[in-house]
Design a protein that fits this description.
The protein has six helices and five strands. The chain is of the alpha/beta class. Strands 1-2-4-3-5 form a five-stranded mixed sheet.
């Protein structure tokens, strides 16, 4: 390479580096792109995904409980638009899984609907008990859900 072509590449490389930094900063407003999966109980279904906004925390939190008639469903079906909406407002977001009716019956719970209900309560308790480590504001937490998850949230 000649001296002239090296000198011409230097400003171009610096410009590309600056462009990469700008593009990294333009991601979804206030959103962390990935979730941290946490276990709130011993059962493999007792897990939650926690998304935190990019802003400094402790942050308020909204917890989502999926539907599925207590037979099926998964936190993976959480509406991404909901996650983005809350994160862009500086609100952390958690989506939980819970034991379904068959798993609750397997564990000796009667009526089996106690499994999903107890797991929802346990997930919220877990988030409150660990608020400092998770950078959450335990005094500002809300729960909502779809279908059977809405019943759990109540």
């Amino acid at each position: 390479m000649t001296k002239l072509s090296r000198r011409a590449l230097l400003p171009a490389a610096a410009g590309l580096g600056l462009l990469a930094l700008l593009l990294a900063a333009i991601r979804a407003p206030g959103a962390e792109q990935s979730a941290v999966e946490l276990a709130y109980g011993a059962d493999p279904r007792q897990k939650l995904d926690l998304y935190r906004p990019a802003k400094a925390c402790p942050c308020p939190l909204v917890m989502f409980v999926h539907g599925g008639g207590w037979w099926n469903g998964d936190k993976e079906h959480t509406p991404k638009s909901d996650i983005d909406r809350f994160l862009s407002k500086g609100i952390a977001y958690a989506a939980i899984n819970y034991r379904n009716l068959n798993e609750a019956a397997r564990d000796g719970l009667f009526p089996p609907v106690l499994g999903p209900l107890q797991d929802t309560r346990r997930a919220l308790q877990f988030l409150r008990l660990n608020e400092k480590e998770l950078r959450l504001d335990g005094s500002r937490m809300a729960v909502y859900g779809s279908s059977a998850g809405g019943f759990n949230a109540l």
